[in-house]
Amino acid sequence: MSSKSYIIQLSNDADDASVERFKKDVEAKGGKIGHTYDTLFKGFSVTLDPNTVTTLSSDPLVASIEEDKKMHTL
């Protein structure tokens, strides 16, 4: 299955150590971490296969996972 790019938003109350552990878990599952977000929300971009997204989305640390797409203004 082909990999896609996603934005993973983590729970606002996730501490830095939990975030780092989760990122290592994502990498262990074959994910390639891109940009880390920490200003407006805690999270990061990642490239991984869609089946892994289903597994990760059940983690209590995860607030949401969205496919990374180009956005356009009207």
Give an overview of the whole structure.
A hairpin with a 5-residue loop joins β2 and β3. The model has no long low-confidence stretch (mean pLDDT 93). The protein starts with a strand and ends in a 7-residue tail after the last strand. The chain is built from two helices and four strands. Helices cover 28% and strands 34% of the residues. It has a single domain, classed as Peptidase S8 propeptide/proteinase inhibitor I9 (Alpha-Beta Plaits, 2-Layer Sandwich), CATH 3.30.70. It is globular, with a radius of gyration of 12 Å. By secondary structure, it is α+β, with helices and mostly antiparallel strands. Strands 2-3-1-4 form a four-stranded antiparallel beta sheet, with helices on one face. GO terms for molecular function: endopeptidase inhibitor activity. It holds the Pfam family Inhibitor_I9.
